[in-house]
Specification:
Blueprint (H helix, E strand, L loop, with lengths): L1 E8 L6 H17 L4 E3 L11 H4 L10 H13 L2 E10 L5 E8 L5 E6 L5 E3 L5 E3 L11 E5 L2 E5 L8 H9 L4 E3 L6 H19 L2 E4 L3 E3 L5 E3 L3 E3 L5 E4 L6 E8 L1 H9 L2 H4 L11
Parallel strand pairs: 1-2, 2-3, 9-10, 10-11
Antiparallel strand pairs: 1-16, 3-4, 4-5, 6-7, 8-9, 11-14, 12-13, 14-15
Length: 277
């Protein structure tokens, strides 16, 4: 089975209305190009790093104006749509960084809250404290769309191989990695991490990204990528401008890769070493 997908690369603005106006034409272009599954990046609905400006704009996933607009677009275009993430308000009042899989009927089929928070002081002097804004999720999620099983992750999750292994063992054929990677870490690690997760699990990896310099002052790396289960690059946007990346996935390649290198089956539990005194 071959599945045509499209990865949307955005430069999301700092308001919902502008974000929706930005992404809808790209999604329409993807559907016109024959994509049956379309994926957007992390922070598709809004990017605003000033907490005081962001907080008043956060709503529930169901009430978010960008999510509502994208659900209508999926229904109108008759495509499956992964909103890579929307920054929303949880039921308990805390903020969440949440992926949402939308059916061609415009329904929310699955959601995933980012597990790993990016709390770091980079050598460049840039700092990030996601845990100061967002509450992490507590479960891994797989979901079915267009005849494929997706394993949902978000951005910084890419650095945690155990998550991707668990998704693959649960049946995921495609690992989704919507991201807003920083430029320093993107230049150093983005492609090699994506290819490593594909090779380790024998999975397709689809990574739609934010790119360029945003209204709120942040810079993101772009370079959206589609990776095959053997680790080869199927397609790449080799820039940080908004755009659409198409890829045709032969899902039989997953079983072939896992049979050739049965790392998922061969792995063994073990006792870790005691720390040296």
């Amino acid at each position: 089975m071959t599945l045509r997908v499209a990865l949307i690369q955005t430069r999301t603005p700092a308001s919902h209305a502008a974000a929706l106006d930005h992404v809808i034409p790209l999604i329409s272009r993807a559907a016109q190009g024959g994509a049956r599954m379309i994926l957007t990046p992390e922070g598709t609905n809004i990017l605003q790093k000033d907490r005081d400006l962001l907080a008043p704009q956060l709503t529930s996933l169901e009430a978010d104006p960008v999510v509502m607009g994208l659900r209508e677009a999926a229904r109108r275009l008759q495509v499956s749509l992964l909103i890579g993430s929307a920054l929303v308000r949880r039921e308990d009042g805390q903020a969440a960084n949440r992926s949402a899989l939308i059916t061609p009927q415009g329904e929310i089929a699955a959601t995933y809250d980012k597990l790993h928070m990016f709390d770091v002081d980079l050598p460049s002097g840039e700092t990030a404290r996601e845990s100061a804004v967002y509450a992490p999720g507590d479960r891994a999620v797989i979901a079915r769309a267009e005849g494929a099983v997706l394993g949902l992750t978000i951005c910084y999750d890419i650095r945690f191989p155990a998550l991707h292994r668990a998704l693959a063992l649960a049946g995921a054929q495609i690992l989704t990695v919507p991201a807003a990677f920083t430029r320093p870490t993107g230049q150093a690690h983005w492609e090699v991490l994506l290819r490593a997760r594909a090779i380790e699990t024998g999975s397709f990896v689809l990574a739609p990204a934010q790119g360029g310099f945003h209204e709120d002052g942040r810079g993101t790396y772009g370079r959206s990528l589609a990776i095959a289960p053997w680790g080869e690059v199927l397609g790449k946007l080799d820039h940080d401008e908004p755009g659409v990346l198409f890829a045709d996935l032969d899902l039989t390649e997953v079983a072939k890769a896992r049979a050739a290198i049965p790392a998922l089956a061969n792995a063994r539990d073990f006792t870790g070493p005691a720390p040296l005194s």
